User: Which sequence fits this backbone?
């Protein structure tokens, strides 16, 4: 695969890469490997010696991600908590921006979930949350980022309901395999909206201070790297893919992280987070309230994923719309099925 296949902004990206390496273009083109196509690729600038990760972003996301790397994390004393941003290249109209990052390799927590590596990643997340709470980075972050607190939950419910109501009123019919999915989701989301006041009270009482949150804290986005320091080697945790960074409660990140682990392992991860924030003087709320905070954050994300297929169906009867709604309905059902396990774990 060659850089010519990357689409908009390639000329600008190649100019930046030429500045970063003396390797010829032919060598670069021969060493491009997809990581998360069509947006993220690994590129060898010096074969066998030096590679980078190139990532295609829209302009608004690119600005947030650059501020994370160059302003917000350094202000929190966490400059090494993300991949180093080596350069930025924007196509002429500014619609597409390429970021070039240091290549962290493949040692994600998802790939290697050993206890010491999990603890290192959790410790970084805890330092992010405790240091950013009340910090001057928050007003700056609000200018560019979403509010991921209880308002995010409410807004997503209302927008998803509006999209599904528009779908119900349209002439678009679901195929037999997905009959009734829109109606069932609408009933579910209306029930959640009726329950907002109860959840909002818990957020106000137990949600903790607003802070900077990663916003997409999957274990695939958490790297733990061995650094020189003698045996045993010290570990550097690092978070990537800050596209959804926002301002909100710690539970928004914590819930994402916990839900990436099997139920039997969540208590261990939660204990690591509890110990890490305690070093900064934080204490977590009682477990029933913590459970509700985490569940609400998860439900907010599910509701958000209803909006776009519903609108795509209304606007253009998109073929992927009903399968996507059915998939989101499965997420809701899985959360229902696992709620008792989660309650036993956290309560």
Assistant:
């Amino acid at each position: 695969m060659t850089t010519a296949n990357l689409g908009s902004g390639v000329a600008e990206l190649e100019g930046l890469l030429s500045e970063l390496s003396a390797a010829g273009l032919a060598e670069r083109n021969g060493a491009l490997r997809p990581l998360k196509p069509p947006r993220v690729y690994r590129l060898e600038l010096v074969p066998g010696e030096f590679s980078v990760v190139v990532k295609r972003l829209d302009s608004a996301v690119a600005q947030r991600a650059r501020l994370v790397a160059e302003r917000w994390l350094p202000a929190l004393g966490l400059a090494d908590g993300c991949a180093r941003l080596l350069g930025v290249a924007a196509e002429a109209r500014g619609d597409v921006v390429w970021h070039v990052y240091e290549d962290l390799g493949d040692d994600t927590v998802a790939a290697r979930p050993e206890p010491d590596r999990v603890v290192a990643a959790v410790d970084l997340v805890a330092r992010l949350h405790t240091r950013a709470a009340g910090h001057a980075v928050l007003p700056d972050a609000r200018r560019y980022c979403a509010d991921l607190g209880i308002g995010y939950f409410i807004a997503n419910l209302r927008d998803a309901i509006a999209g599904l109501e528009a779908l119900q009123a349209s002439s678009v019919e679901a195929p037999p395999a997905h009959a009734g999915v829109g109606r069932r989701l609408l009933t579910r989301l209306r029930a959640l909206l009726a329950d907002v006041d109860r959840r909002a009270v818990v957020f106000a009482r137990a949600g903790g201070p607003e802070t900077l949150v990663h916003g997409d804290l999957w274990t695939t986005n958490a790297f733990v790297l061995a650094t020189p320091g003698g045996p045993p080697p010290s570990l550097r945790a690092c978070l990537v893919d800050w596209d959804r960074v926002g301002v909100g409660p710690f539970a928004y990140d914590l819930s994402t992280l916990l839900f990436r682990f099997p139920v039997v392992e969540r208590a261990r991860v939660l204990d690591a987070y509890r110990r890490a924030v305690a070093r900064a003087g934080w204490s977590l709320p009682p477990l029933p309230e913590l459970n509700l905070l985490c569940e609400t954050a998860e439900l907010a994300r599910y509701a958000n994923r209803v909006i776009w297929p519903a609108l795509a169906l209304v606007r253009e009867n998109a073929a992927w719309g009903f399968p996507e709604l059915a998939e989101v309905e499965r997420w809701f059902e899985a959360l229902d099925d696992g709620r008792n396990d989660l309650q036993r774990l956290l309560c």
